[in-house]
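== Folding task for one protein ==

=== Format: two labelled lines per protein ===

==== Paired sequence and structure tokens ====
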Amino acid sequence: MHDPGTARPVDVAVIGGGVVGCATALALQARPGVSVEVLEAEDRVAAHQTGHNSGVIHSGLYYTPGSLKAMNCARGRDLLYAFLEERGIAHSRCGKLVVATRPDELPRLDDLLARGIANGLRGLRKVGPGEMRDIEPHVAGIGGLVVPETGVVDYVEVTRAYATALVEGGGAVTTGARVTAVRAEADRVVLETPRGPRSARYVVNCGGLQSDRVARLCGVDPGVRIVPFKGEYYDVVPSRRGLVRALIYPVPDPRFPFLGVHFTRGVHGEAHAGPNAVLAWHREGYGPWAFNVRDALDTLAWPGFLRLAFRFWRMGLGEVARSFSKRLFVHALQRLVPDVGLADVTPGIPGIRAQALGRDGALVDDFVIVPGPRSIHVLNAPSPAATASLAIGRSVADLAARTFDIGR
């Protein structure tokens, strides 16, 4: 499907063949006269974060109004739905139910409603227990919020479609091309890869789990460290998928950085439960005991890590306990769907989130895009980056046009 690439110089080399990298390459290629090559480390696109997520098309409900997340999610969601329709990619605008299970969560449900309205969401409405069970018959709660614009899709299919469109337009996607060194010359940048050196006038770093390292290869101090967190899922067994019609989410606790376990119904009919969030010791290893010495040392040596651990150690212990105990994991799920039992779920495929962490121990919450010499670096693109990918790509292309004076 993909052009294997050539050694010819291009205007922009995009490092990283995930959903954000391929969307960014498409947006750059749409600029007049701009040639683009995507360099992907693995033997296929969407090999890491993109290929290990829950497939949710996010509405933009949770994000601070005016933030890059909020603006790009709203714009990107609409662009994505249009792209899916144009390309005939299977998806479902199934909606989401956010469930309050305790009285103290009801005010937060009101806050979410106000935030969603501020972010331009349409069709939001609060519901009581009776209407909640009309929507999701097995759910338990004392109040809920219906979010109609949420959907699901397979982001591997989306990324492949982006890559196909790029190649159809004359661009290149080169796999097996992990960038190992970067050398700046007078009018170009040379990137060393196992497929041979690649030459480009400019570089856009969408390296995801490796983005901070790629930035340093390009001579840029990213100011953050990517700390990987593993999200562990369970799959609902086929005979019990009727427990979940669409998406069932908890009310997020503002004290904690992660959302909590929830249920999602995939575009192919599958149903997932999770994820929890535990520290990963390998940026690209998905097995239960995956460990990489360099990755572990990079995390432990970062000044912000100990500050983070001190702030969230209680929450972290709970996440680790659920990681080792299926019973505890299921108990957390039963807050939302009491009928789910131990026999109803089996271990699923985990994902690893590239979370940028500051020196002060603060988890970077918004997208971070930083220019450098002949380069632009997307250093933090957590959820909803897949939903927002086309909008992020256009934002980066706009920045490239101004910074590099290309494609105007």
Notes: DSSP finds ten helices and 20 strands in the chain. The longest helix spans residues 303-324. Residues 19 and 362 are 26 Å apart (CA to CA).
